[in-house]
């Protein structure tokens, strides 16, 4: 076979024959955004001395006045600045603090140097919090949680996997949805379970076999891989087993206070019912339960599933779940809608009817480009960053705005009606997921809104030139292209 090359997302040429990521799915590894470290000094104190309290002669009024000339200085010598830092603060240019060892919280002359204490890495990762655009004002609840700050719960056996979560405990305003990032090693299981929330999932790496039954005794089994989606309604018991190369997936739940640690586990069901009742229920002797687990299994290693899925397909007289009731959607097979600057694809009950309240868009934004300013009319947005770095300004009535920075593994949460954009601030494609609690994925594009508003009205409100008004796009563009150099505009003034 000749080594032909094809273009993925119109960007990367890859030889056919190598395993290609599914459309819009990246080859994730370490985030390529800013990374670094701080080197604390080694402690030198080896013995006890001194007293815990000071003398009353140190009280103000008793104590001698200090000599400021001989006292500690809070001057920061030779502060370094990055491109765009001296530009007008309202331009809100993206400040790439990776270009300096020690960032300073200054923008357009406002702010001042920072003598510390501080941890540079947080500031490099969050330049828009540290040196906010001049347009940021007022109070906006936190809209960002990096899963890298979540406790990672390990499975019960070596190599079996782990899970880390975001819920209201760490992101208080995220009342409508919560998320979990779960890893299962080769052939490992997420223990058989159910929960009171509905579960929507996007597989980010590898493949997994899923199985479930519904209230009518209809059964379902399927194999799904990176880029595919599953959905289990509240209460539907399900099984997840990684295929032999392991899997990682993202779970989104329709309860903001959902906790991965509070699901109904099959091991617990057997531990929390009298053994005599178990024997009666399963029409057997009590000794049949001698080998039941003594604790939660949670995430644990399994025997490899047969390759032939039919060997694990069990149906009752009610038959199998299929068609519009299917619990999976092979979303990786859908090519995205490509627009200048990136691509978008949507999954909602239009094509995946069982996932009643879940509507999502997977968006790729090329370097320099922007997911346009928009808002959602009926739902909060839960978002997840799969690759790259981005920033988002949340505008909240009245009179408030705040800009948050995101890197791969970050969760975003934007309340209904709050306008926002997602700007690629890095040098690689930005890939992120927007999830709504809605029966259809929808948004209001501010550019389209103004394009479809009488021209005179727009002009009277905003003072736009006729040229700009004529250029407004009547069709929704989703993404806007832009200069890869995020500070180039500073020179245009
Ligand atoms: C499982 O069996 C049912 C009934 O025979 C069939 O309709 C369904 O397609 C099978 N599922 C798979 C994944 O093969
Ligand atoms: C971006 O533009 C600024 C302003 O023109 C310039 O100083 C800077 O060198 C440019 N950066 C790159 C990476 O080209």
Automatic annotation (TrEMBL):
It comes from the Eukaryota. Binds 2 manganese ions per subunit. Residues 31-82 are annotated as: Disordered. It holds the Pfam family Cupin_1. CDD domains: cupin_OxDC_C. SMART domains: Cupin_1. Residues 1-19 form the signal peptide. InterPro entries: Bicupin_oxalate_deCO2ase/Oxase, Cupin_1, GPI/OXD, RmlC-like_jellyroll, RmlC_Cupin_sf. GO terms for molecular function: metal ion binding. One of its GO terms (biological process) is oxalate metabolic process. Residues 147-290, 333-470 form the Cupin type-1 domain. Mn(2+) 2 binds at residues 374, 376, 381, 420. Its cofactor is Mn(2+). Keywords: Manganese, Metal-binding, Signal. Mn(2+) 1 binds at residues 193, 195, 199, 238. The active site is at 434 (proton donor). This is Cupin type-1 domain-containing protein. It comes from Cylindrodendrum hubeiense.
